[in-house]
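Lest this sound abstract, we let one protein speak, letters for residues, whole numbers for local backbone shapes, and leave readers to judge:
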Amino acid sequence: MITVTELRERMQENPFRPFRLHTSDGKSYAITNHDMMFIKRNGVEVALDLDQNSVAERFAKIALLHITAIEDLTAASAA
């Protein structure tokens, strides 16, 4: 299981390395900058549908128990 500590460490890396969260329902979420995800006690909120000013149209709430993997994103897979 992914922990809050692992997520926090990943979000605080300098320089930031984009990554993808995989969830138990088969979905995945690309985290391309450190402002796209908020870490909460038992889960995260991921910004979705960013406009040209990086303002989110909506958020996905994901429980920690449902995050199955963290994968590094390459420039080609970030799209």
